[in-house]
Amino acid sequence: MFDGQDMTPPTLEIRNVTKTYSVKQGLMGKRKPLTAVRDVSLSLRKGEVLGLVGESGCGKSTLAKILLGLEAPTSGQVLVDGQALGGQNRLELARRIQPIFQDPYSSLNPRKSIADIISLPLRIHGIGDAASQQKAVRDMLDVVGLPARVMNSYPSQMSGGQRQRVAIARALIMKPEVVICDEPTSALDVSVQSQILNLLGELRREFGLTYLFISHNLAVVEHLATRVAVMYLGRIVEETNTGDLFDASAHPYTQALLKSVLTPEPGLGVPDTQLGMAYPNPIDPPSGCAFHPRCPRATDLCKQRAPRPVPMRDGHVECHLHDPETPMFERS
Amino acid sequence: MTDVLLTVKNLTIDIPVGAGTLHAVRGIDFTLNRGEVLCIVGESGSGKSLTSLAVMGLLGKRIKCTADVMDFDGTALLKASAKQMRSLRGARMSMIFQEPMTSLNPAYTIGDQLMEAMLLHGNATRAEARDRAIELLEKVGITAAASRLSQYPHQLSGGLRQRVMIAMALMCGPELIIADEPTTALDVTIQAQILRLLVDLVREMGMAMILITHDLGVVARVADKVAVMYAGELVETGPALNVFQRPLHPYTRGLLQCIPLPGKTERGAPLGTIPGIVPSLVGQVSGCTFRTRCSEATPACRDTIPLHADGPHCFRCVHADGQRHDKKESA
């Protein structure tokens, strides 16, 4: 899709990545394979923000872990600036990709002071002396909306929102190239959320940062992302630029997700998503298209055969309805 | 004719802390009618959850809670004995807590936990309670309800557990439901389904619901009445339509500018922010607590703040329309 336009490699590229876990069901159960991420390919150019959306259990966080080098993919490759991840020095990798995790209760060391937590990346990389590190921490605290007096506090003395701000400060203090934001604002109050989103936007423009922004808040994704990928049961079922995805989504799952967003417009009531409740069990995925049991437009073909990715606009969609090779009567 | 279920006047909650007293909730008033959904919206630490716990009589003994009136259908909640409160809680008023992962007891089956309140209140036999549990699980959209009764919480997903919590709150047919961030931990698809269900139940059964949330999208879609809470005070209250279409308090206006509005906010453009942080509520608190973050603040904001009312739409601000008009002169 980018061939011929720009020969510089994407800042971050995921090539055919699959992650299969082996899980035991019950005490005496046999081990079964659980494919959390199934043959996923994505690429992010410098300065882009890729919003990754989908319900819990769809494999978003597993993908984030693979990108951070916390999990090795079962197969496939992750490339940063055209270089495969495995070959890179870990310190170098940490300089370039930094995470902001979802749960600020488990992502901060309870025995370290806030100043220690935020300055740890600087100390590991040997940047500046103690005084300049302290100053950097103080500046970063101000940037994330925390008073300087919390420097000597511990995570247990802080609210969830404050802790997440510490986690964000820790990730941003290295000014990394790629930031993997895993639900970074879902724990924050709206007034703080907008500050953090603005901050992420400013830093992106200023330093050309690239974000992978994982969130289930679609209004936030629409606002911040330049591209959006929709994930369902380990597959990217639709991926395109933000405008097209929100204005004219193609996949029935994307459409259902968008319909369930509660925009702050009074008088409209709560939408009826007609999705049914049950997200499928990833150990025992449905036949054919994984979405067919919940899809209002599913046909027999969807039950039998998995759809293939079809190029659409400047991305792709994976649905029989949009595949030109699907017989016409199946697409109506 | 309105059918008032809950009246709260001048509710004040003080928490003793090391350095003095934390004035967590200061003189709030609201009423709730049957068949109505009141959304209390505000940021963390604004006192939303404390207010709901006060209504339920679940504040600890250390916490000092006073009110001029706190009346639930003729019962003065603050004067009620522990026994009276026990007979109300779970039966006529019940609560849905925020965390479905931690609010269920992992050692008991779903069925035992669902039936507990009904059996405790002594208004059903075990068989009746079981039937009621199955009926409600089906109502909240859980398939194979009968077989779920013997399952343990860890066997259910987050969405299912939250549905179980809702079914549990409904077991005794309460008149008042207090839901504290009932959908915050859930996916958008499940959130929409659960909120739809709660609102339908309120309308169908003539219950009343207090929904506590910080999600303005949820408030707009669900609330009949909105109460905006800031630092322990209700700064603006009124019908949802009025508050969203014509927010009068600077804080409410600020909150609404903080969230991206699909189709209205330009993608990628900076969102509105509210600078500064919530002030400490320990010790003497006077004047408008929002003045340190407010773009409309004047020296008069340190004084007692009047309450303006435009029909049912009220707000607390020194400016009669929530805006100062002397900006040009002072600039």
Please tell me about this protein's structure.
- The complex is a heterodimer of chains A (332) and B (331).
- Chain A is an alpha/beta fold and 332 residues long.
- Chain A has one domain (12-331): Rossmann fold (3-Layer(aba) Sandwich).
- In chain A, the strands form two sheets. Chain A has an eight-stranded mixed β-sheet with strand order 6-7-8-3-9-10-12-11, with helices on both faces.
- Chain A has helices at residues 60-67, 90-96, 114-124, 130-143, 160-172, 190-207, 218-224, 242-247, 252-259, 300-304, 328-331, and strands at residues 12-24, 31-44, 49-53, 75-80, 83-84, 97-100, 178-182, 210-214, 227-232, 235-241, 310-312, 315-317.
- In chain A, a hairpin with a 2-residue loop joins β11 and β12.
- The relative contact order of chain A is 0.13.
- Chain A is globular.
- Chain B has 331 residues and is an alpha/beta fold.
- Chain B has two domains: 4-92 and 174-275, P-loop containing nucleotide triphosphate hydrolases (Rossmann fold); 102-171, no CATH class.
- Chain B has eleven helices and 13 strands.
- In chain B, the strands form two sheets. Chain B has an eight-stranded mixed β-sheet with strand order 7-8-9-3-10-11-13-12, sandwiched between helices. In chain B, strands 1, 2, 4, 5 and 6 form a five-stranded antiparallel β-sheet that branches.
- In chain B, α3 runs parallel beside α6 and α4 (126-139) packs across α6.
- Chain B is globular.
- The model of chain B has no long low-confidence stretch (mean pLDDT 89).
